[in-house]
Write a structure and sequence with these properties.
Blueprint lengths: L1 H20 L3 E2 L6 E2 L6 H17 L28 E6 L27 H5 L2 H12 L2 E7 L14 H7 L16 E2 L2 E2 L5 E4 H9 L1 H10 L11 H19 L5 H11 L7 H21 L1 H4 L2 E12 L2 E14 L6 E8 L7 H15 L3 E9 L4 E4 L4 H19 L29
Parallel strand pairs: 3-4, 7-9, 10-11
Antiparallel strand pairs: 1-2, 5-6, 8-9, 9-10, 11-12
Helix pairs in contact: 1-2, 6-7, 6-13, 8-9, 8-10, 9-10, 12-13
The structure holds iron/sulfur cluster.
Length: 435
């Protein structure tokens, strides 16, 4: 494990480096792509410098994989905590000079041309700091402590104005001996947070437990794929078109869609030729979609809609590509969930994915009456059964998969998946030649 963890760290460093230096950029007119170099002496020289810099500045410790899953206190900055939640959260050190920091809003002298960056973003504003405070306060699911200490160093400091606003003035702050410790909330014992797992994680672990272990537990990063981001770029364009229709009430013309593609379609690592080919493919998909589903574009209820399915001790998260409103009469709209696939091959989990979102939607009180897997290359739609029985079977399946992960069952499943498996060279179960 320790040896693998070292290799994994090395793959992470390569990935970090490549994501920056091999990223192409748009031409100065906002169109066309300027490729980054992916070979040559200078690239390796830069990598050597990057490694030397890393070794000098970091203590290259190798953490045992899985440490982050320990039942322990997580200590982190507010920025690092974005998007995460815990049952109990402490936000200490809310003093007048720390949040907002004393320098916020003060004009500073910059050595970089100010047209190249947003001065506000780096000098900070009260609004930004309040938003950050809001992020900190909303990380707790059950119990939140916000506090300040009177003498961080030698001289006493005042509490943060944000803390005072929430407390209702300095007189309302409590001293440590008056604190009510988070033993219970509203008379009920704090429930341990359910295990949160994304649907894609459950799907990947089911395709091959060992591949999942290599990637997500050990942390091996795959080699950079030139087509990386294609599916996401197509989803992004569809979302922009849907938002445009919602805002204007009109389906964009063909030339407007062309313009949008020129402006917004971007693959960070594709060389020019691959970019041109994939850009053409994306054009075909989008044209077909807009031509076939003009009416539907007027009925889009949400795009990239996050869902959380709460089962006992388990929360399965995911994001549906698009939710369509089927009827406009009732106060609770009848909805359909569609998932767009950009690759021709359909994984067997596609149905399960939509059923997961439908079950989560039911938990929110939404009425999802249809689900479709939409194959963008062919324009075909496969309906997904959403009867109560099918949703019950789907949730049983999710529980079974989560249990296997909890039990550390990372069994290999050699087969078709080995062909596209990026850890096949390390795997003694691989069933295809990888050389
Ligand atoms: S090569 Fe095959 S068996 Fe091995 S980890 Fe990859 S998918 Fe699993």
């Amino acid at each position: 494990m320790a040896a693998l963890a070292v290799i994994a760290r090395f793959t992470q460093l390569i990935a970090d480096f490549e994501k920056v230096v091999r990223r192409s950029r748009r031409g100065d007119d906002g169109r066309g792509i300027i490729e980054a170099s992916d070979r040559g002496h200078s690239l390796y020289h830069r990598f050597a410098t990057f490694l030397a810099f890393y070794l000098k500045n970091e203590k290259p410790s190798v953490e045992e994989p899985g440490a982050e899953q320990l039942d322990a206190v997580h200590v982190m900055t507010i920025h690092q905590s974005k998007g995460l939640q815990w049952p109990v959260v402490f936000v200490p050190s809310l003093t007048a000079t720390r949040l907002p920091p004393g320098r916020v809003g003060r004009t500073r002298e910059w050595l970089i041309d100010e047209r190249l960056f947003s001065r506000d973003r780096y000098e900070g504003t009260d609004d930004q700091e309040r938003r950050l405070f809001y992020v900190a306060m909303t990380r707790a699911r059950e119990w939140l402590s916000i506090s300040a200490h009177r003498t961080p160093r030698v001289r006493p400091v005042r509490p943060s104005p944000y803390l005072l606003e929430v407390a209702g003035g300095e007189h309302a702050l409590r001293t440590p001996d008056q604190l009510v410790l988070p033993v219970s909330v509203g008379g009920a014992q704090i429930e341990p947070e359910g295990r949160r797992v994304s649907f894609s994680e459950l799907a990947a672990a089911d395709r091959c437990g060992l591949a999942h272990w290599y990637r997500d537990i050990v942390g091996l990063r795959p080699a950079l794929a030139v087509e990386m981001g294609y599916g996401r770029a197509v989803h992004h364009l569809l979302r922009l078109i849907a938002e445009d229709v919602q805002a204007t009430g009109r389906v964009p013309s063909r030339s407007a869609v062309e313009d949008l593609l020129d402006r917004e379609f971007y693959l960070p690592f594709a060389p020019r030729r691959t970019f041109a080919e994939l850009s053409k493919a994306a054009r075909r998909l989008i044209d077909r979609y807009v031509a076939d589903h003009r009416d539907e574009l007027h009925s889009i209820w949400a795009t990239e809609r996050p869902f959380e399915l709460h089962l006992d001790g388990l929360v399965v998260t995911g994001r549906a590509d698009v939710v369509i409103r089927l009827d406009r009469s009732g106060s609770v709209p009848q909805l359909a969930i569609a998932d767009y696939k950009t690759a021709a091959a359909h994984l067997p989990d596609n149905e399960l994915q939509i059923q997961t979102y439908a079950a989560a939607a039911a938990g929110e009180g939404l009425d999802v009456v249809a689900g479709w897997i939409h194959d963008l290359p062919t324009g075909r739609r496969a309906p997904v059964p959403l009867s109560e029985e099918r949703l019950r079977r789907a949730t049983d399946e999710l529980r079974r998969r989560a249990r296997r992960l909890d039990e550390g069952d990372y069994r290999p499943r050699p087969g078709e998946a080995c062909r596209r498996c990026d850890v096949a060279r390390l795997c003694r179960f691989a069933v295809v030649s990888t050389r």
